[in-house]
Amino acid sequence: MDLVISILRGVLGLAILIGIAFLFSNNKKKVDWKLVSTGVVMQVIFAFFVLKTGIGRDIFSGISTVFVSLLSFSIEGAKFVFGPLAVSPETTGSLGFFFAFQVLPTIIFFASLMAIFSTLFRFVSA
Fold it and tell me: What is the phi/psi pair of residue 103, to 5°?
């Protein structure tokens, strides 16, 4: 029964989001409902692939491992620059949680990395 309620909650949430998007649309007559339904079906197929197949879980587990290792570089860089201020609260030698020294370096690192990738892809495609 919990599975049915969970699925109904998801469908209701999706319907509400599509309804809000429709209400805020500038031109309601030009909404391509075939395109919207195709997008929803593609999203359901993708979710099934990721959540219910072994290969989908393995692919996203690998992607997750890559991103976790990338983010660990930013944590080590913050520790190098800020010392004990960048150590997370659950580890020894921590001075507590400081947003500016623990979260912002990760955001800056990731944004810089994406800017580099964007520039490289623009350069390669030209």
Answer: -100, -45
